[in-house]
Amino acid sequence: MQPNSVFYAKRHRIALPEPSQSYEQDAEWFVIQEDNGWKEIRFHDYTAIFEVAGLYEQLFYETLRCDSPRFIRELLGRELAKAGVDPGELRVFDLGAGNGIMGEELRELGVGCVVGADILAAAAKAAARDRPDTYRDYHVLDLTKLSAQQHQLLDGYEFNALTCIAALGFGDIPTACFRTAFNLVADGGWVALNIKEDFLSARDNSGFATLIKESIRSGAFEVLGSEVYQHRLATNRTPLHYAALVGRKRADL
After folding, report:
1. What is the pTM of this model?
2. pLDDT-derived band at 172, boundaries 50, 70, 90
3. CB 3.0–4.6 Å: which of 68, 175, 203, 245 could bond 207 by disulfide?
4. Is the pLDDT of residue 199 over 50?
């Protein structure tokens, strides 16, 4: 699915590695043609990607068929409907918001208040450029190093929902960051996230398998809907599967 954005008129010349070549997900790369030749960019170099309007969408959504924001929005919408909750009642903290694609999906769902956060200034700048009416506010901050003033600011939103899409497990958002975001949500609030299957397995060394499984075991996170689905294609054109989880926060982590 391609996000509903308005700046796709300019097409970028990009190329992926040959399909016969396989890379770990955090080592994937592509090249883009610039005025002085071809430039190689790693997929996780989000600053470089966000600086070019439309590149993120062309690479991940058009070329590699990323479907996570739409998928999570629909899963969250179904669970809200089952619980008789109006999406307009949600005050959502969108963690790792990037240039606002998940925020856009939330607004389409009917959520009235979405606050974005990302550690990258380039992400905030891209969100303001690409989706200027999506977020009530957008904060550039490190949740592992919040000042008392920043914590008070976030508490003031009285969040009752958290989304974190395609941002967990690769070091972009560590477990301590996710824990802080989770704990900002009021008890009884909603949580929607996705994570690569590998980070929920016994092989995981990111800490997320332990954190998420313990949150479920302890009852802090009550999972209401979960599904494994195709997040996007890898550069070798094979599917990357993620687990989507939607539920309610019952206690702090």
Report:
1. 0.94
2. confident
3. 175
4. yes
Structure tokens belonging to residue 184: 């900002």
Mean pLDDT of 50-62: 96
Helix/strand/coil (H/E/C) assignment for every residue in the chain: CCCCCCCCCCCCCEECCCCCCCCCHHHCEEEEEECCEEEEEECCCHHHHHCCCCHHHHHHHHHCCCCHHHHHHHHHHHHHHHHCCCHHHCEEEEECCCCCHHHHHHHHHCCCEEEEEECCHHHHHHHHHHCCCCCCEEEECCHHHCCHHHHHHHHCCCCCEEEECCCECCCCECHHHHHHHHHHCCCCCEEEEEEEHHHHCCCCCCCHHHHHHHHHHHCCEEEEEEEEEEEEECCCCCEEEEEEEEEEECCCC
Query: What are phi and psi for residue 248, nearest 5 degrees?
Result: -125, 140
Which pLDDT tens digit goes with each residue over 128-144? 999 999 999 999 999 99
Structure tokens at 34: 């610039």
Length in residues, the chain: 253
Other beta carbons within 10 angstroms of residue 177's beta carbon come to: 23
Cross-strand pairs, 229: 242
